[in-house]
Amino acid sequence: MVTKQTTLQAFRKSSLVMLALITLLAACAPAQPSQGQVQSLVQTSVASTMQAQNQVGTFVAQTVQAYQPAATETQQPAAANTPTVETTETPLLTLTPILLETPTTAPSSGGGGGYVYVPPQPYSCDPDIDKRPLDSNPPYAPGDHFEIKWKLLNNGTHDWPAGYYVDWHSVQTNIIPQPDPSTLPTISVQTGPIYLPEVKSGHTYQLPTLEGIAPNQPGRWTLTWKLHGFSGCYLYIAITVK
Prior knowledge:
alpha+beta, four-stranded antiparallel sheet, 8 strands, 2 helices
């Protein structure tokens, strides 16, 4: 504002000086000034006036600009710190099977004499107790006589009622070629049947001693008898003939 007032005062002084100069020239001159002189003085006064006006306009514009509020930069609100949640992969539990040992019980029956665990059966037998001859017996000569013995064990959970019996079942050999089954020797002189009395569960029964005759042909021979009353009980002996 001070600059603006100073400029206006200067403008006014200039105008007054010009008017005084023109008046003085008119009074002192012996004659009327020429038209060219008057026009030159007028143009000079007008130019000075316009220059002063331009300066005033410039100062006014600068003053207005100075008083305009400065543009402020709009600040964006700072992003809130969002907590980061970290996920941890939890491994699945692996179930490991545990094998439990099953207690063994009495051996199973069968012609092979092997001992394999089987669950307790209602009806079962063990025919290999005190069996004679043993599989490891020395070889027989053709026509030799020998004794056949079996003791049966009722290792089932049920009693055997009286009336069960055993009899001759078959003869097998390892001779190659295999002979006609109808020509095979019976080996045992008796072929049965031999009836049994009642045999309680867990008890044994000694069969009568049988007589055997070694075949005339060398080889390995297996004699099998069978218990009738329930399935799966076979009695056997195996001999070698030289």
